[in-house]
Amino acid sequence: MKTALRVEGLTRRFGRRWALRGIDLEVEAGSVVALLGSNGTGKTTLLRVLSTLLRPTAGTVEVLGCALPDGGAPVRERAAFMTSEGHLYEELTGRENLRFTARMHGLTVERERVSAALAEVGLEDAADTTVRAYSTGMRKRLELARIGLRPVELVLLDEPFASLDDDGVAIVQRSIAGWKGRGATVIVASHRVAQASRCANRLVRLVRGVVGEDAPS
Amino acid sequence: MTELVRRAGAILWKDLLTETRTRQGLSAMLSFAALILFLFTFAFGADAALLSRIAGGLLWVAIVFTGTLALGRSFQSEELAGGARLLRLYPGDVRAIYLGKLAGNVLLLAALELLLFPATAVLFQVELLPHAATLTLVAFLGTLGFSTIGTFFAALTVHLRARELLLPLLLFPALVPVVIGSVGATVETLAGDPFGRAGGWIRLLTAYDVILFVVCMWIFPVVLEE
Amino acid sequence: MQRTLGALALATIAIGTIIGLFIVPADGLQGEIQRLLYVHVPTAWVGMLAFFFVFIMSTLYLVQRRLDWDLMAASAVEIGVVAIALTIILGSIWGQGTWGVWWEWDPRLTTTALLLIVYVGYLVVRSMTEDPDQRARWCAVIGVIGFVQVPIVYLSVFWWRSLHQPPSSPRSMATVFGFTLLFNFAAYTIGFAYLMMRRYRLAKRELSLELAGPDAEP
């Protein structure tokens, strides 16, 4: 099997606090990993490192065959990262937010892609309303549509189920299944075990910045 | 290269769109600039001859102060959307972010100056029209210099506590050549350039703009790192 | 090494001060106040040297990302700020005695004051950032930009002033003044090296203390 990411001895400190204390992890391409652990165990930090946002303090990180942090450029093309607080511009409409993303990614047939991505998550009706008026669930759907604009090989989701109702959770899970079906690797960081493990085929639990438990789901 | 410009264009498009949705930004800035000009008049007395002689200086001080407010806003919109650093998730050169923001600040200031120059002419009784071409060049170079350094320091300070204080503290010393050059060129031009000195100031401005632009472009990726 | 350097710095600065105060005759034109220059000019030199050092260390940090370079830069900034503040104060006193004014819009004086503000800004940014890497990155950026702008700031202020009056230039000095000045240059440079060493060691200890704690080991 191909390896989507390989992490060895990864540490990251913020001043005197060590968020990651030596992570060793290898993930096969096409798998869905639930990254579990209570708040402050390093899940977000790990995702930020994998997404190329954060420089590791030490250790080797290889994502989609690229060594981070210096070889991160191709990763940004092929991977997607959904942060817990989201990355949406309040004053823009849903459609404009997606068009911005499409342009930043240099996507062709921008209009069609945006419309298709909006339809995928059922946001056609609200597409031309500013995000300011969106509910939490709609925002999350727009975030998913943002990822859906382009083919991706790795999807990193940080607390995708937070403050969502049952319908919202179902939509996120459906998206995860969709990416899996297209052969992408998905990593879902969540402290809600039930929802995360339902769609995962592997459970990795972080404890104080190290992998504490690693089991198939 | 075209990639860089295209991405910068996307940032600019997004920011301008946001700016048009929150139109109070520009009008508040305008009022603020006008207030500064009024305060000058109150501070220096209603001496028409004096005011018209130093009009160029007053104008640029108003632009610098108002522009500093605009700079602070240009990255705060990113903070509201989860953080400027998230823009680094997009592929390609992060300098596109700097270029896009820079262009946005230049345009915003240009809109401000379009109203501020005539206002100065009226308030301080100076003739702009005979020198329109030179003044436009000076305004452009001054605004470009201001935005080049300003956008850079705005990105640097946006994550800092007390950024409202730190932005001017870092920015103003670096602005000295821009202010001296712009004011020098404006004052000389308004006086009809009797000693042929405006050209020297314009060359100084151009040189500083180019040097600072190169340095800022070189270091900018570090600013958004984490 | 450090002790020897400290003793050497103390001895040379003491000798330089004695020469400057008691041995060299007072300047014919300016009188006793001219003796201030034996400190004023070397501190200005140390300040410039320190800030140039900051520029080099900042660049090195940006290339190699080693915190040691950042600590060196920060140490040099502190020394430079003290040296430049001293330069401005002494220059101001000298100006009062010679020109009759405390402050003259002389290009060098004005640029020096602006320079002081830039590096005070550096220290403020430093004090406001907790994460050592983050702090190092931002400070390195200021260390580079701050230094790049210096010559142009000087040039612009110089032109700005020269429209009104010729800039003040030091008269060519007699050999005995020149020698004293040169001696003090050397003495203060040794003093700078000594302070750098002390401050850098302290900075290293501060950092390890900052990074230590119950939560320290990975």
Salient structural properties:
heterotrimer; A: 217 residues; alpha/beta; Rossmann fold; six-stranded mixed beta sheet; four-stranded antiparallel beta sheet; 7 helices; 10 strands; 33% helix; B: 226 residues; mainly alpha; 8 helices; globular
Global shape of chain C: globular
Distance between the termini of chain A: 18 Å
Cα radius of gyration of chain A in angstroms: 17 Å
- Largest interface, C-beta within 8 A: B-C, 32 and 30 residues
Outline the low-pLDDT stretches of chain A. Answer: none
**CATH fold label of chain C:** Four Helix Bundle (Hemerythrin (Met), subunit A)
Classify the helix fraction of chain C into a percent range: over 70%
CATH architecture of chain C: Up-down Bundle
Mean pLDDT of chain C: 86
By CATH reckoning, the class of chain C would read: Mainly Alpha
What is the CATH level 1 assignment of chain A? Alpha Beta
- Examine the secondary-structure arrangement and name the CATH architecture of chain A: 3-Layer(aba) Sandwich
- What's the β-strand tally of chain C? 0
**In terms of structural class, how would the helical and strand content of chain C be classed?**
mainly alpha
Low-pLDDT residue spans of chain C: 164-169
The largest sheet of chain A is:
6 strands, mixed
H-E string of chain A: EEEHEEHEHHHEHEHEE
Summarize the main sheet of chain C.
none
